[in-house]
């Protein structure tokens, strides 16, 4: 979304305190009223989780073969999440830099992961395979891989996720 991209770029260039909703709107050519149709505050714009993420997770879980184990469902979904994030690499790296520079944003960023974890757990439950611990592990893997990837790692995020899950599976056997 153009508002999010403009907000991230401006905050990265000027610092969060020097960027206003009006400046973000001017950059994109929309009114503040339009901005507030999508976001409740500047920080929400900068940290916004994909608008369709919850629905996407529910649909992706429902599409997985019913014969898959809950672990394989979680692994597949988290890998697909990593692929979606990889496609937004530049934007997510800017967001990670802002979170590092402005620690007060960490709690809001963490809340986004918590919502994704709850959605994944609820989706598994609706599928008839309740697995809240696996959902938590899956999102923890994504978070653990996101940090190095977003700041310096040159490897693709899906590859880091695959390696982490392989390590976990190896330790469990």
Description:
The protein has about 170 residues and is mainly α. It has 2 domains: about 1-50, Homeodomain-like (Arc Repressor Mutant, subunit A, Orthogonal Bundle), CATH 1.10.10.60; about 50-170, Tetracycline Repressor, domain 2, CATH 1.10.357. It contains 10 helices and no strands. Helix 1 (about 1-15) packs across helix 2, helix 1 crosses helix 7 and helix 6 (about 70-85) packs parallel to helix 9 (about 130-150). It starts with a helix and ends with a helix.
In short:
The chain is mainly α.
Radius of gyration equals 17 Å
**Low-confidence region ranges:** none
Total DSSP helices: 10
CATH 4th-level superfamily of the largest domain: Tetracycline Repressor, domain 2
Distance between the termini: 43 Å
Strand and helix order: HHHHHHHHHH
Instruction: Give the number of domains.
Output: 2
Tell me about the biggest sheet? none
Strand share of the residues? under 5%
Instruction: List how many beta strands DSSP finds.
Output: 0
User: What is the CATH architecture term of the largest domain?
Assistant: Orthogonal Bundle
From the 3D structure, determine the CATH topology of the largest domain: Tetracycline Repressor, domain 2
* Protein structure class: mainly alpha
CATH class of the largest domain: Mainly Alpha
